[in-house]
Amino acid sequence: MRVAVTGGRGQLGRQVRRAFGEAGCEVLEPLLDRPAHDIADLAIIDTIAAMRPDLVVHCAAMTDVDGCARDPDAALRVNALGTRNVALGARRAGAALVAISTNEVFSGTARSPYDEWSPVEPINPYGRSKAIGEAFVRQLVPESYIVRTAWLFGPGGNNFVTKMIARAKAGPITIVADEVGSPTYAPDLADALVALVHTGAYGTYHLVNEGVASRLEFAQAIFALAGIEADVTPTTLAQWPRASQVPPRTPLRNLAGAVLGIRLRPWREALAAYLSIEAA
Question: Does residue 54 lie in a domain region?
Fold first, then answer.
């Protein structure tokens, strides 16, 4: 299988390249990263088509949630129209498409975890731009997998884990206690994507490590596993000023993938594995 990857140098993109390579696929060059390849530029359609992939894995995105709130038009150009361009490129190539989406397409007001068929109700520009991107994928590439994930961390990334460790080492730290979600380890997600593609069961999926945590609980696990004595003060979303409105409770339920036998290990196990790599 010939695989093209957008955002191939990013935290998830690197793991996608590894996982598909280990599965015996040909991961194509170029990696479709900025500045040479901008998904918001219509030229990406011809670039993808010329690569003749069998599969496109679309990891590239504007993921700075506060940045999206400050510049909603930029979010739409990249996450909505950029995804449209990638989808058009995949369609022109006759390729299937894996499109990575987010928990932030949901409002965060549900009392139970969101499954794959829960109503999409974004409350911020990032979530809205990703929801529109999802709609383009469904419209343009029926042979697609829309994969929502959340709170991604992994090797080489500037993520919640690395930020918490750096901040805790620098001094007292304040952490939100009432934002709840699904921490997800990038290598586990990438391996799950390979398994998903091999099923040929197109559709929408929630692929996250099992279990739920608040930001505070996630941080406390990080500090405990990293052996850091952190001076932590809990706070609330209402007391934590941000440019973007944050959906408070967006744990994702993996139902569609689990039916196919695709499950990710508990997030605490994945976090321990990650920190052992970082410490080596």
Answer: yes
